[in-house]
Structure formats: C-alpha cells, structure tokens
UniProtKB/TrEMBL annotation:
Protein's UniProt name: Uncharacterized protein
Highest taxon listed in the record's lineage: Bacteria
Upper taxonomic lineage: Bacteria, Bacillati, Actinomycetota, Actinomycetes, Geodermatophilales
Amino acid sequence: MPAPPPERAWQRLAVPRGYEVQWRRLVDAALELDLGPDDLAAGGFAELAAAREWKPATVTLYSKVGRYGGLDLPLPHTPEPDPPVLDLRPLTEIRSDDPEHLRTVAWCSLALQWPATVGQFRSLRRDQVDVSGDALRISTEDGAWTVRGATAAWSAWEATRDRFPALAASSWVLPALRRGPGVDSRIGGRLSTQALQTTFAKHAANTGRHLQATALPRHREAADALAAVYLTLSYDSYRRLALATGAPPVAVRGTVRALRSVHRTSRLAG
C-alpha cells in the first residue's frame, strides 16, 4: 500500500492532550516541507530545524510533543542554558489564586535574591522573614539578607494561607498543602526535599505552557524555546542561574560554578 499524502497521514494521529497548540505548529512545519509523520520519524528533526532555524531546546520540545503523539522519535538531550541569558521572571509572576501556585511563586521570588538550597528553604520559618517597607528581611543562623521585589508574591501567599487554619498555624514558609503517604505527614507540616523539587518542576513546566498559550504570533518561537528549557528546569539550576545574575551567595554549593559562567560570559562580551 502506498503511503497516504502527508496531510492525511497527520490527520490519522491523535493530538496529544494538553499539547494541542504545539502539535499544530509541529504539523504545520512538517507540511511546509511535505513531510508526513513517517518521514519525520525516519529522518528526525534536522531538516525541520534547519528550515525553521530552531534552537536545540526548541527541537527537544517538539521531539517530546511528537513522541506524545505516537511518533517513534529519539529523545534528544536538552542542553543546559547559558545562565546569564535565561529569563526567570515568568516563574515569579502571579497567574492565579491557587495556593500551590502562590506558594511556589513566593519561593521563586525569594530565591531570585536569596538563592538558598532546597534544604535551606525546607527549614525556613515564617518568623525568619519580616516585611520592611518594600523589601523582605530574611534572618537565619548564617546571616541576614534584604530581598527586594518579592513583597507582592509574599503578601499574596500569606493572605491565602491565612484562609486555611492549618496553613495559618504552620511555622514553615513552604508548608505542605495536603497529606502525603508518610505516617507523620500533615497539612501545614514540613515538606520533604523531594516534594519541593517536584513542586518546582511542576511550576516551571506549567509556566512554560502558559507562555506558549499566551504568546503573540511574533513571539511564539521565543516562547517555545523558553518553554522547552522550563520543561526540564530544576530548582538547583534555577538557584545557580540566580547566582550567575548577581544574587549574593547564601550557601557554598553552586557558587563557584555560577561565577565561572559569569566570567566566561564577560570574556565573550569583552
């Protein structure tokens, strides 16, 4: 049997749920080159990437979308971004009044200028954070820091948690919002390191999808590229990126590597 025309071949595939927009862009790009799904699976993304001038992170995104749609595609490795050029601000923007969203936005807003480790945030207490005018003051056993630009996110998170007695009574800055599988787990309790890392990854991925869904046509490729990075962004990388943009070190971990990135970028620019 001869292969069906590319457009009909694409129509036979089910659109992956949650990735309708990205799937449409992938199909449009393939049809511009008269490629069907089998052609793309056999030849990979080299031809599409060259025609659209896609960056490696964008190729990674559409490879994943293709796999979600049933294409037998290899999963390329997402290259780690150059720290000084990655835009982290979308991760600090409030988009809803959902408690989990507000908790993570407050975390990301604090971490931009107080790039502590997951363990330090896990142990951070509310009485260690004070609002002082348009800034927050964080005081721990290791020192004191002034954090600007995070008061709006902090106030929104504090106002939301005050609506729930268990959260209002919790002493942790990032408390659990629901009971977990552990015997001692409770609402308002101290989160595990794994739970925090999972929460950040979920927030980063959701932020990327929001950027893609709301991007203007002329900004779509930039939104796709940023979303591809966000899809695999961990809190450790976020913290190192904040350090690379000039945030004061809070812990030794990751500081040397961030400084090397800054020096390398300075040499290239100079």
